[in-house]
Amino acid sequence: MATHSAERGRTTRQRLLDGLAAELTARPGIGEGVDWLLGELSRYSGADPASLLVLEMFLASTRLPELRERLGVQIGGFRAVVASWLTARGYRGDAEAAAALLAASLDGIVLHRVLDPGLDPAAQAGPLRAMFAAGQTAPGPASGPRTRTRRTEA
After folding, report:
1. Are the C-beta atoms of 68 and 87 separated by less than 8 Å?
2. Has residue 99 got a pLDDT over 80?
């Protein structure tokens, strides 16, 4: 049963990410895309079945290496679409890092809504838009591709 539930959860998560990615790429500007994504998050309370499924899958992935790998592929695909979308709209910073930060922010907002149901995702738009606006200017000396390292357990 746990395997069936995990498979159903992966499929649900993939459909959710695919839908978000497709809708996001239809947005003409970065600010509009951020606003739209946060508006979509407003549909989820953090205690609804879809939110809880995502949260449970993240937790289960700490115990199930296959699930962790498959979720990593799904999230990596979403982040790649977001990075391409950012680049196509003039983002000059590290689009991969910005996409990872945006994806983590979305997941974090859902997680925080479990603890604070009054948290309004739309209220987070200003800081996220400001981060992306900074990447639309000419890159400074600290910008550019970053070397990614994976933390390994000691």
Report:
1. no
2. yes
